[in-house]
């Protein structure tokens, strides 16, 4: 345990018309430092996660964190990007800086503003997280990419419409109690299962309730070394951590196996010295419900092709044997790309501190996080444990 999270901040996710990328960054950076009980002078390094890909005209954003306080001037600040795993890429870079001894205190911010972009451009921007020579003309954009994955999964393992609807219903139900969630409405299983005017098919077997939301939002956290964390009012330690990158073209791998996800989970759990069954909860990357379904298998919760059991038999409910996405996940909480991974770490830390309110998992001791960029290309896993 060489690095700890000692403070955090989180905006609501959704359509934030009165905000800008800059205002979101400034707000969470300021609040995270206050929450940690430190000042700007204590910060050694700044890492910003911001995907952008055309969502913001301002494409050089690392120094916007300095707008939070003049005392952040002259601190090293770097923007990182790894598609939809951008937030976790920022978190992991902070941990690397602390582990290397290059920094004692690192401020991490994740941000995205997507809703001010016209619909067709949103699709083009998101598709940049795929391999354009093969997928650049995919109808329905990135949803179309996962629509193909869902179609192929159905071809190999049978119709999984019941499981996808159960995942969507579970996550929407969980999101009702998350004050940061973009969509706080329990749609119920039948609505998610049934095609309707309000829930049409979007791509392949994926309906609207199978797809995560276009969102604005930001989250931030403060990472320190363990010795410093022990002097703070709260500390959540990184017990295990892994980043595995896979081929970008789906044609170079069996896309139904999410092998990078499997390897990342194996490495992180091994580093932590635990098994998946030791975890109290998991926040996983449900950009589309079929992703969460395959991730059940990739993390080792079920054998290959049997992911449906985990949700249909109630294992992944908030009171199940391994609660998955008690926050509501990307499905209900929203998916402002650069902020998502940071948000996962913030909400998991709140779970371990017992301060997660209505989404609290009882007696949470260990939290697992999986954040994915592209179609299982960038794979980040963290295992968190409360230190104090």
Automatic annotation (TrEMBL):
Q: Which Pfam families match?
A: Thiolase_C_1, Thiolase_N
GO MF annotations in UniProt: acetyl-CoA C-acyltransferase activity
InterPro entries linked to this entry:
Thiolase, Thiolase-like, Thiolase_C_2, Thiolase_N
| Secretion signal span | none
Question: Where does the record place the Thiolase C-terminal domain?
Answer: 251-386
Domain Thiolase N-terminal intervals: 4-224
Q: This protein is called what?
A: Thiolase domain-containing protein
């Amino acid at each position: 345990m060489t690095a700890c999270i000692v403070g955090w901040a989180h905006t609501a996710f959704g359509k934030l018309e009165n905000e800008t990328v800059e205002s979101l960054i400034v707000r969470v950076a300021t609040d995270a430092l206050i929450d940690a009980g430190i000042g700007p002078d204590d910060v050694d390094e700044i890492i910003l996660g911001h995907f952008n890909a055309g969502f913001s005209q301002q494409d050089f954003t690392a120094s916007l964190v300095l707008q939070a306080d003049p005392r952040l001037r002259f601190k090293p600040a770097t923007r990182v990007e790894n598609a939809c795993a951008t937030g976790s890429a920022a978190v992991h870079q902070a941990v690397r800086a602390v582990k290397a001894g290059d920094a004692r205190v690192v401020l991490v911010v994740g941000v995205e503003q997507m809703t001010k972009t016209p619909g067709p451009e949103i699709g083009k921007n998101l598709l940049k997280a795929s391999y354009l020579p093969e997928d650049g003309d995919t109808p329905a954009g990135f949803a179309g990419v996962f629509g193909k994955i869902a179609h192929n999964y159905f071809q190999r393992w049978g119709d999984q419409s019941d499981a996808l609807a159960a995942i969507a219903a579970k996550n929407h139900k969980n999101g009702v109690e998350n004050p940061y969630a973009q969509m706080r409405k329990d749609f119920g299983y039948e609505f998610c299962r049934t095609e309707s005017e309000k829930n049409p098919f979007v791509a392949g077997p994926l309906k609207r309730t199978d797809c995560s939301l276009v969102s604005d939002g930001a989250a931030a956290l403060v990472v320190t070394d363990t010795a410093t964390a022990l002097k703070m009012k709260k500390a959540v330690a990184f017990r295990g951590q892994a980043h595995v990158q896979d081929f970008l073209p789906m044609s170079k791998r069996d896309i139904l196996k999410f092998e990078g996800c499997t390897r990342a989970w194996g490495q992180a759990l091994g580093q932590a010295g635990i098994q998946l069954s030791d975890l109290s909860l998991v926040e996983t990357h449900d950009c589309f419900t079929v992703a969460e379904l395959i991730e059940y298998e990739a993390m080792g919760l079920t054998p290959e092709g049997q992911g449906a059991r985990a949700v249909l038999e109630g294992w992944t409910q908030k009171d199940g044997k391994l609660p998955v996405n008690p926050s509501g996940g990307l499905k209900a909480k929203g998916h402002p790309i650069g902020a998502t991974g940071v948000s996962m770490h913030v909400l998991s830390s709140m779970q371990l501190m017992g301060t997660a309110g209505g989404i609290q998992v009882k007696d949470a001791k260990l939290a697992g996080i999986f954040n994915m960029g592209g179609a299982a290309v960038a794979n980040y896993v963290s295992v968190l444990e409360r230190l104090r």
